[in-house]
Amino acid sequence: MPAKVMKWLAEEYKAKKMGFIAGSLGPKSFVQGKADLVKFLQDSSVPLAYISPTLVYGNGR
């Protein structure tokens, strides 16, 4: 799981912060999965900065 690796690397190398893009739109399972990842990452000695965009566009979208 990429979030697990990110958390481990941040703690191992004493990063100052972690960043994460959560989600506000999409299927309920997607939004809930992102919320679960935020909770998982917040349970770390490294502070987490995250955003929950309501609209994402670009790259031909």
Q: What is the share of helical residues? A: 40-55%
**What value does the Rg take, in angstroms?**
13 Å
For the residues shown, what is the average pLDDT? 91
Name the overall outline: elongated
Report the count of strand segments.
2
Order of strands across the widest beta sheet? 1-2
End-to-end separation: 27 Å
- The percent range for strand residues is 5-15%
Question: What is the chain-wise order of helices and strands?
Answer: HEHE
Q: What structural class do you assign from the helix and strand content?
A: alpha+beta
Q: Give the low-confidence spans.
A: none
Biggest sheet features: 2 strands, parallel
Overall tally of structural domains? 1
In brief:
With 61 residues, the chain is α+β, with helices and mostly antiparallel strands. The chain contains two helices and two strands, in the order αβαβ.
What does this structure look like?
It is a single chain. With 61 residues, the chain is an alpha+beta fold. The chain has one domain. The protein contains 2 helices and 2 strands. A two-stranded parallel ribbon has the order 1-2. Helix 2 links the parallel strand 1 and strand 2. The longest helix has 15 residues. The protein is elongated, with a radius of gyration of 13 Å. It starts with a helix and ends in a 10-residue tail after the last strand.
Ordered list of secondary-structure elements with their pairings:
Layout: H1 2-12, E1 18-21, H2 28-42, E2 48-51
Parallel strand pairs: 1-2
Which labels suit this protein?
2 helices, 2 strands, 43% helix, two-stranded parallel sheet, 61 residues, alpha+beta, single chain
